[in-house]
Amino acid sequence: MIYAERMIVETDIAGNIKQLPKLPANSRIEAIFLVMDEQPQPLRQPHPDIAGKTRILGDIFSSVPETDWNLS
Q1: What is the pTM of this model?
Q2: Whole-angstrom Cα distance, residue 52 to residue 8?
Q3: What angle do CA 43, 36, 19 make, to 5 degrees?
Q4: Using one digit for the tens of pLDDT, what is the confidence trace for 10-46?
Q5: Which of 58, 53, 17 is nearest to 35 (CA)?
Q6: Residue (of 16, 23, 15) closest to 7 by Cα position
Q7: Contact between residue 21 and residue 9 where contact means Cβ atoms under 8 Å apart
Q8: Which pLDDT value is given to residue 43?
Q9: How far is 9 from 37, CA to CA, in rounded Å?
Q10: Segment 45-57, tens digit of pLDDT
Q11: Nearest CA to 8 among 33, 27, 28, 30?
């Protein structure tokens, strides 16, 4: 029987796996490592006191010269 199981393992500063996962006994395992560069960021939300109370009354992109945006 072939089945897949997703595991996320972490490495230390030297690149060694911190904690080896428990694997089935007497089995051959194929591993594919996908390096996750960034930790998932929590969803940002405004403070409840100001949520839904902001209004944009004009063109906010033209308020500053394009050279000040530091775009390449």
Answers
A1: 0.40
A2: 37
A3: 110
A4: 888 898 999 888 888 898 888 888 888 777 778 888 8
A5: 17
A6: 23
A7: yes
A8: 85
A9: 13
A10: 888 888 888 888 8
A11: 33
Q: Which residue has the tokens 């996320």?
A: 8
Give the C-alpha separation, 61 to 59, whole Å: 6
Read out DSSP for the chain?
A: ----------B-TTS-BSSPPP--TT-----------SPPPPPP---TTTTT-----S-SSTTS-GGGG---
Read off the amino acid at residue 39: Q
Read off the tokens for 34. Answer: 């996908």
Contact partners, residue 12, CB within 8 Å, separation at least 6: 18
